[in-house]
Amino acid sequence: MAVPTAPSSAPEQRSLALNLDMRMRKLGQSVGRPLFAVILAMIAGGIVIMITSPGSLIDRFNEAIAAYQALLTGAFGNPQNLSFTLTTVTPLILAGLSVAIAYRVGLFNIGAAGQLAVGAMTAGIIAFEVNTWPGWVLVPLMIIGAMLAGAVWGGIVGFLKAWRGAHEVVTTIMLNWTAFYFTDFLIDGPFKAPHSTNQTDSLPAQATLPHVAAFYNSTLGAFLPKIDQPDQYLVDVGIFFALAALIVFWFITARTTFGYEIRVIGQNSKAAKYAGIPIKRNIFITMAIAGAFSGLAGALQLMGQFPYQLIATTFSLQSTGFDAIGVALLGRGSALGVLLGALLFGGLRQGGTGMQLNANVPGDLVFIIQALVLFSIASEFLPAIQRSLPKGLKFARRPALVPATIGSTVVDLPDNSAAQNGAAASEIQDVDMFDSKTVPSSTTDESSIHRIEED
Amino acid sequence: MFLQVLFRVLPSADLWQSTLQFAALLLLPALGGVISERSGVINIAMEGMMLTGAYAGVMTALATHSVIGGVIGAMIAGGLMALVHAIVSINFKADQVVSGIAINIAALGLTNYLLFIQTGGQGVPTLSDALRLPTLSWGPLANIPIIGQVLFQQNIIFYVAVLVLLGIQFLLFRTNIGLRIRAVGEHPQAADTAGINVRLLRYMCVISSGLLAGLAGAFLSLGIAGIFNSNMTAGAGFIALAAMVFGKYTPWGTAGACIIFGLGEALSVRLQDSGVSPNLLSTLPYLLTLVALVGLVGRTVAPAADGIPYEPGGAE
Questions:
Q1: Which long-range contacts (CB under 8 A, 24 or more apart) does B169-175 make?
Q2: What structural domains and CATH numbers belong to chain A?
Q3: What angle do helix axes A11-52 and B96-119 make, rounded to 10 degrees?
Q4: Each residue of B130-189: pLDDT tens digit?
């Protein structure tokens, strides 16, 4: 860990080797645990299928295999299914980023679902109010409006947390249901389509996003070979917005002072305070950004996919907001990880439908698998297993990371300008953000500080 | 128009009867939450535990041909979900919020999955009266105008909920065990030093919250609805969570919050012809809780060690 302090006759070489070792270990950690969680969950899901299906043990085993085959085919088996899966991946990436950025500052954003709802609602309202405007004005306006609405909804959480100390888990749940019922009220009230219940009109045609295949045919397709039957590929250009958002997220968190500051706050708010980082303001801004990501997810969902209209009670039934938590945890809060997590969860979601159709196993099994993924990624199975092993078998434990890191960070950070200090930055990064000892949360923070002082 | 309907509805015994019915439905899981959080384990999984209870209640009632069997099945199912939460968050030190979310997702998936498997996608039939929780009528007391209907013609679970409320108030603030629970939730290290088994006590509290949520699930499926539908709790567990926070983690405060929220629910059904959207009224519990959190009606503060896994001896 202590790269800068390693004394050696060839310091550069040594630190390079150490660096490589550290990087490999980090890679192992960041890939190993999510992979372990997913495999464990899939096995447990298979056991559930085996328990509930009829026949001999072999029959049951074959049933489970067939179900997973159908799941995989349904999710990624052919270009149509893949493109269908990608339609769910778009909002999952964005909502996952929303949860991930909040996690950086040490907050748990359970409010992605509500922020998504107000975002979609705002985009819809803009489209209905000015439905005669041309698409090149309307579409950006809707997207910006949705992001702003989401930012407000998330910003409230940040404000209440920073200035009033209200626990974000409770406030986000309250704001979620407020958003669900309030959008239901708007959908079934002022914006209800004439002669119908519980739904709005469809968006005007110029306010919708084209499908990727159709978009390609009408642009690049003029010079390159066209895609046959573009209608069968459902993914819309919203996926590009999601990919752009991944890059924005990476840039904010890895390349800006702000990204560094929120990480310090998340790891240790006392150290951040000592370093002169404006904690309250940063918490507020982070939650606003988190809300904007979710709001964008809502807008893209509305504008990109059939039926291009808002329907009451869909937001409270949709699982995107909660899936996003799994996505962010699986992705360990990194951009690439969120992308992979979103592909997995989106694949499960679409594959579940295929499983029900082709293997006659209820698609709801996917929920069980997702829950198991969450359980196993949140639990510290490995340390618990290790504790129960006999002494000789225990592998060497590295010393707890928090005290060392925090100690050096505080010393290395005389003021804000040190935020660009590369060594300190890399040390902060190394803290396993999902290790329970370092879970950035204001409550655990108090106790870890306490512990450090005792040390 | 709105006020006219409101004033017509407010004095009716009917309204208050269903207010108390909703309140009891919310009170059971909310009290479970109070116990769990007082012992230092965050529980946002009341929704999932209720749903599991509702499903298990109907299924065991059908299988055993007995409503008591159904209630027991529901409580066991809720307790098992809570046991998972306890194991994961106490032994494996998982983030309790994540574990709670996972329980909610698992409950939704599991009930839908089993419903499909066990009924072949048909869904369960409406229960016969013999398999439903009875409404008690207290003889002459039930005939008192208004009060009789409101207080003495309620489902049996309503009276159970009142007893549970009194019991938990007594348990938490008048007994040794209650003192220990609160100590474990505020300062586990000190409690451990004093010889209290922190983990065991937390296990007990989390499992009790599951039993109570399961009972509420049975009340919903076997008492109020008489049928099980997919995702039938529809957020009731989250209103219970709101009631717990609004009630500042105290039994009496939670009961008060449940009555306010129950009134909101009962009103939203009856005000449909008044021009005010029931959806708009449904936002009230959550908005009120936010106001309480902001501190306009006295600040809500969670127990000090809420959500922190306990490690004996501090850092290892």
A1: B169/B251, B169/B252, B172/B34, B172/B35, B172/B38, B172/B251
A2: 82-346 (1.10.3470)
A3: 30
A4: 788 888 877 787 778 878 777 888 888 999 999 999 999 999 999 999 999 999 888 888
Given an 8 Å threshold on Cβ–Cβ distance, is A169 in contact with B42? yes
Phi first, then psi: give them for residue B155, nearest 5 degrees: -65, 150
pLDDT of residue A415: 39
Q: In the numeric block, which tokens belong to residue A355?
A: 């499983």
Q: Do A368 and B110 touch (CB under 8 A)?
A: yes
Given this model, what pLDDT does residue B292 score?
78
Query: What's phi and psi for A134, nearest 5 deg?
Result: -70, 160
Beta carbons of A170 and B94 less than 8 Å apart: no
Q: pLDDT tens digits for A285-326?
A: 999 999 999 999 999 999 988 888 899 888 888 888 888 988
Chain A residues with beta carbon closer than 8 angstroms to that of B42: 169
Compute the distance between CA of residue A164 and CA of residue A440 in angstroms, rounded to an integer: 19
pLDDT tens digits for range B238-295: 889 888 888 888 999 999 989 988 888 888 777 776 667 788 888 888 888 888 777 7
What pLDDT was estimated at residue A303? 93
ipTM exceeding cut-off 0.90 for this assembly: no
* Interchain CB distance below 8 Å, A375 and B309: no
The values of phi and psi at residue B243, to 5°, are: -65, -40
Higher-pLDDT residue of B55 and A438 is: B55
Which of A172, A176, A110, A155 has its CA nearest to residue A288? Answer: A155
Residue A22 has what pLDDT? 72
Q: What's the pLDDT band for B231 if we cut at 50, 70, 90?
A: confident
pTM across the whole model: 0.82
How many angstroms separate the CA atoms of B170 and B181, rounded?
13
> Could you tell me if B34 and B168 are in contact, meaning their C-beta atoms sit under 8 angstroms apart?
yes
Nearest CA of chain B to the CA of A189: how many Å?
Answer: 8
8 Å CB contact of A441 and B106: no
Q: Write the CATH number of the domain with boundaries B2-133+153-294.
A: 1.10.3470
Could you tell me the two tokens for A127?
């489209």
Check CB contact of B231 with chain A, cutoff 8 Å.
Answer: yes
Omega before A54 cis (within 30°)? no
Q: Which of A171, A374, A443 is closest, CB to CB, to B98? A: A374
Tally A–B CB contacts below 8 A.
164
> If DSSP states are collapsed to H, E and C, what string results for chain B?
CHHHHHHHHCCCHHHHHHHHHHHHHHHHHHHHHHHHHHCCCCCCCHHHHHHHHHHHHHHHHHHHCCHHHHHHHHHHHHHHHHHHHHHHHHHCCCCHHHHHHHHHHHHHHHHHHHHHHHHCCCCCCCCCHHHCCCECCCHHHHHCCCHHHHHHCCEHHHHHHHHHHHHHHHHHHHCHHHHHHHHHHHCHHHHHHCCCCHHHHHHHHHHHHHHHHHHHHHHHHHHHHCCCCCCCCCCHHHHHHHHHHHCCCCHHHHHHHHHHHHHHHHHHHHCHHHCCCHHHHHCHHHHHHHHHHHCCCCCCCCCCCCCCCCCCCCCC
Domain ranges of chain B: 2-133+153-294
Whether residue A331 contacts residue A341, with contact meaning beta carbons closer than 8 Å, is answered with: yes
* Token couple for A216: 């390609």
Place A142 in a pLDDT band, splitting at 50, 70 and 90: very high
Q: Give the model's confidence band at A447: pLDDT under 50 very low, under 70 low, under 90 confident, else very high.
A: very low
pLDDT at position B23: 93
Beta-bridged to residue B213, according to DSSP, are: none
Which tokens in the block code for residue B136? 């008690």
